[in-house]
Amino acid sequence: MERKALSALPFSVLDLAGVIEGKTVADTFNNSVDLAQHTEKLGYLRYWLAEHHNMISVASAATSVLIGHIAGKTKTIRVGSGGIMLPNHSPLVIAEQFGTLATLYPNRIDLGLGRAPGTDQLTAMEIRGERFASPHNFPQDVLKLQRFLSASNSGAQVRAIPGEGTDVPIWILGSSTDSAHLAASYGLPYAFASHFAPAQFLEAIKIYRQNFRPSKVLAKPYVMACINVVAADTDEEANRLSTSLKRLFLGIVTGKRQLLQPPIDSMDNVWDFNEEAAVNQMLAVAFIGGPQHLSGQLNSFLAQTQVDELMVTSHIYDHKARLHSYELFGEIMKKG
Questions:
Q1: What's the domain of life for this entry (predicted)?
Q2: For the chain, which has fewer Cβ within 10 Å, the N-terminal or C-terminal residue?
Q3: Which one of 3.20.20.30, 2.60.40.1520, 3.40.50.12280, 3.40.630.70 gives the CATH number of domain 8-335?
């Protein structure tokens, strides 16, 4: 495999529309618009939003609505889902929603698809009702969705209007090896959630590449890794800012979720040994530091994985510090 240069890689944004302690959901949406406009100017390729439900710290539940809002406030950056949890919806409805978005914002909409519920099991039952077993239909539902979005469906009894003929680019999202097999067999681009589920990342992308079958939409494998990044002018400042991210993941590990908390000087009195180990395992693909430190880390990561694109999520409490982190990351990527 030909070695890639960091400066040749596209770089993108994953926004969970995080709600910050002391702020409102409306503040979150305003910050998302500001971040999208900021990263568009910095040369980021995509701005994706993720479907999550029943989480006090995540406000992107109505994902397609928020995608439309962000797309309407920007001009060139691609906007999409990272992802839509397809078992929560009928393929026809998603085809109509994303067909509408693609019609309003031509050649700017991406459709990343996941199999997980994006929530807890009780909430998933509320969302899916009698369709609770729908994850088993995920491979067939992806094909249905492709068909609804294609021009070749024009003679069918059930059609997506709008949507038909838009051929919105579809990605398979994954956090395990199961999704790798599906993305490979369908010849679709593959985005891996290494920002929270790094354990199977290397094995999954190996499976995807080895089993990839070229398709009408993709001639060779395309891997995007989603990563956590907390960049600052110095390593010390980045480490301090990262305590908000670590406390967020601590809430996931302990089941005591909170809004994104302000940074603190030390985590020593916040977690115990086992909690620290669990959080660090989830954050194995996190890049925290000043520009020089991050450049070395990212080049090593690229040498190991040979990914085709990086998608960055940055849980940083202060909005200006978050904007600056994306600015520094963009500079590092361009320099290589």
A1: Bacteria
A2: N
A3: 3.20.20.30
